[in-house]
């Protein structure tokens, strides 16, 4: 073609291009005018209303489920503790057995045992009989006067000797064994009383007094006194003595509470957990709901723990008429030791989940932290690639199944917390730490499709076998057609 023909062709293409541009502008203007001038369709908003209604319904349902779960949580915790203490004799003995080593409880037991011995044996009368028998012999008057003067000191000395023997026995390992036997017998008798067993040796009186049987301890002390050569101990009869450890009008309702604890103590924690989990799953913003649910759960457990400590003051004051304050405090601490440790563990669990959900949530600076970690993981993978170090097929598997692996890790941590007993703060903390470390390792070791090396034949085979949709970054990187492209195509 000649130059003139080329110039004419270029001019023709430019004219066609201008015409195409005018047509595009006209079409856009007409469309904009149509949108602005058309009357609104009465049927158009109809589909949106149900969505808003469904959204509100989901929110209300989520809030209701979470509130019910939070209300049931402390009740379930107390019910589970009551069921364990009331039904499991071994757990009951393990709870109260350490009291045998508490100095305040030992002193209380010595006082109670000596009180029973004093009621059964008149030390002054016993020594008077001995001294009177000696005085009846043909002895000088001065010796008789001396015997009369020695009656009271001898009686007190004999009583002191008995107290020393009792104290020595209470401080021995044999007492701890007897104490455990007494606890086991008392618990069995308590269960018998709560189940209305007519053969029960422990009872809850109409005034609400709860007592522990002291008979085994007195019998063992009697044997120890006889072994020490104190023959008068043979006069101690077999008695059904008991220590009143608590008094409350609410004890009269223990039979009903026992039945409730046995019936629902095992299932109520699971019911509460189901309500909480359902509330989070129903919510539209699950991470946000999980954060607030776990945070409030931790606060509820903290409040219950504070109430338990306040109950210490009230309970010890109510027991002061029967048990010394220091011994009552030791008994209360032993009774509540298991539930106290569980409350602390549950509070730690709630705050730990709240922290994790905050990191995964939309609150600042959580997104920035996640971005920094993601960039760091990407740089670490790139550094490994430059050194010929990579995770290969395992990393590609993690990249494809990352969500599934994260769910498995979460379910494993939840199973440990739910089924491992006894639960403790250390168990929860270490479980959370291990789960977080595993999740971080998955993020570092996984190999996203976007980072696959196209020069690696293995990676190319992986892409061909498992094609993936283009990532947003890839879409954004694609060139966008413009009028200049239209000119070239024209």
Task: Provide an overview of this structure.
This protein has 490 residues and is mainly alpha-helical. It is built from 19 helices and 2 strands. The chain has helices spanning 3-37, 48-87, 89-96, 103-120, 123-135, 141-170, 173-194, 215-227, 254-264, 268-282, 286-319, 325-360, 366-386, 392-400, 402-419, 425-445, 457-465, 472-477, 483-489, and strands at 209-213, 242-247. A two-stranded antiparallel ribbon has the order 1-2. Helix 2 packs across helix 9. It is elongated and about 170 Å long. The chain starts with a helix and ends with a helix. Mean pLDDT is 75; it is low at 39-47 and 462-490.
Strand content: under 5%
Termini, distance in Å?
19 Å
SS-based class: mainly alpha
Low-confidence stretches: 39-47, 462-490
How large is the count of helical segments?
19
SSE order: HHHHHHHEHEHHHHHHHHHHH
Helix content: over 70%
Mean pLDDT: 75
Number of separate strands: 2
Q: What spatial order of strands do you see in the largest sheet? A: 1-2
- Using the alpha-carbon principal axes, give the shape: elongated
- Give a short account of the largest sheet: 2 strands, antiparallel
How big is the Rg? Answer: 41 Å
